[in-house]
Design goal:
Blueprint (H helix, E strand, L loop, with lengths): L7 E7 L8 E6 L5 E8 L10 E4 L10 E6 L7 E2 L3 H12 L5 E6 L4 E9 L2 H6 L11 E6 L33
């Protein structure tokens, strides 16, 4: 029996484009200044200290530019994924109009390490100021160049429970093996 396909990949905002990334794109802050490079990797081991797991479908080397809301906890802060604030943010994502992509960031099977919301088009970009995950931790609104981020299907609902604690939400299937 072959192993089930991996449902996650690694994502990190790093100073320079890594040679071993499967996708990478330059990132700019709201003022247009360089904010580094958003890199994604398909591999088992963590490629960089700041890398977190995200839904693998986010990785798209042919993806168009996007504006993102990147939510990360402050250094040294840890929040359980099942915390009521995280549950409420997920509910709000499910209840609102769709973004091009939304996925949580994980470091392990039980801790919420942030989220990335991908917006394309004026209406989606305008809604980033109301990112439900930004109510938990501060968000950085960034512009990401082409070549990194894809589009995810809308999360399945109405359930909000995760399918396997090692998978970033909104994973839509169980993995076996």
């Amino acid at each position: 029996m072959s192993a089930a396909p991996r449902t996650w990949c690694w994502l990190a905002l790093v100073p320079e484009a890594p040679d071993d990334a499967d996708a990478a794109a330059p990132v700019h802050d709201a003022g247009g200044g360089s904010a580094g490079v958003l890199a994604l990797w398909r591999r088992q081991g963590r490629p960089a200290r700041e890398a977190r797991r995200v839904d693998v479908r986010l990785l798209d080397p042919t993806g168009p530019p996007a504006t993102v809301s990147l939510v990360r906890p402050p250094a040294g802060v840890s929040l359980l994924f099942d915390d009521l604030a995280v549950q409420e943010a997920r509910r709000r994502v499910l209840a609102g109009p769709r973004f091009d992509a939304v996925t949580t960031l994980l470091s392990d099977a039980s801790h919420f390490e942030g989220a990335i919301t991908v917006a394309r088009g004026a209406a989606q970009v305008a809604r980033l100021r109301d990112d439900p995950f930004a109510r938990i931790f501060a968000a950085r609104v960034l512009t990401v160049g082409a070549g990194a981020l894809g589009t995810l299907p809308a999360p399945a609902g109405p359930t909000i429970e995760r399918y396997g604690s090692a998978n970033p939400w909104p994973s839509d299937r169980f993995t076996y093996g």
